[in-house]
Amino acid sequence: MQKSLIGKVLLMMLLCLFSIATSFGQQQYTISSYIEEHKKVAQQLMKETGVPASVILAVAIHESAYGNSRIAKHLNNHFGIKGKNDGKTIRSAYKGYGSVLNSYLDFVDLLKRRKSTQSLFDNHNSTDFTAWVRGIARSGYSATKGWSGKVLSTIDRYNLSEYDK
Q1: DSSP-derived secondary structure for the chain
Q2: CB–CB of 153/54 below 8 Å?
Q3: Which CATH number fits domain 2-164: 3.40.50.11270, 1.10.12.10, 3.90.1210.10, 1.10.530.10?
Q4: Is 76 exposed, middle or buried, given 0-12, 13-18 or 19+ CB atoms closer than 10 A?
Q5: What pLDDT does 10 receive?
Q6: Burial class of 28 by CB neighbour count within 10 A (0 to 12, 13 to 18, 19+)
């Protein structure tokens, strides 16, 4: 119970940092700046849920063009999750979030909620990123052909598995 409270406090502190960073205008991320800014949130979510930080980061990098896509900038959606939004600047079928952190939290919650991905939490630990990516792909998370290969390639290219330790 207390461990969960500490995790939530840490996530709220990170949310404050994100708010401060984004209040100075829309920034253009590089791949390294995106990883640097979001790795701690991914690692905290991994500790709390078991979803590998490398998977969280790689899916976000792939789906949001490392934070530079229109839906990432205008809707804080870093995972390409569809749903309602009240975006005034763009019209989109993608879900809008109050913060980037909320997008990260919803991604992990989506994996927990979906029947087709629930077994990943029971059958794979946080160091088995390949099984997680393939399981997410099999669940129909993305209709893009070769999605799992692209996400796995992102993990390898940027050595994201180092954040799973």
Answers
A1: -HHHHHHHHHHHHHHHHHHHHHHT-PPPPPHHHHHHHHHHHHHHHHHHH---HHHHHHHHHHHHTTTTSHHHHHH--SS--B-----SS---SBPP-SSHHHHHHHHHHHHHH-HHHHHHHHH--TT-HHHHHHHHHHTTS--STTHHHHHHHHHHHTTGGGGG-
A2: no
A3: 1.10.530.10
A4: buried
A5: 58
A6: exposed
Q: Could you list the mean pLDDT of each consecutive 10-residue stretch along the chain, which spans 165 residues?
A: 61 53 63 98 97 98 97 96 85 93 98 96 94 96 94 98 96
Token readout for 25 is 């205008």
The pLDDT score that the predictor gives to residue 19 is 47
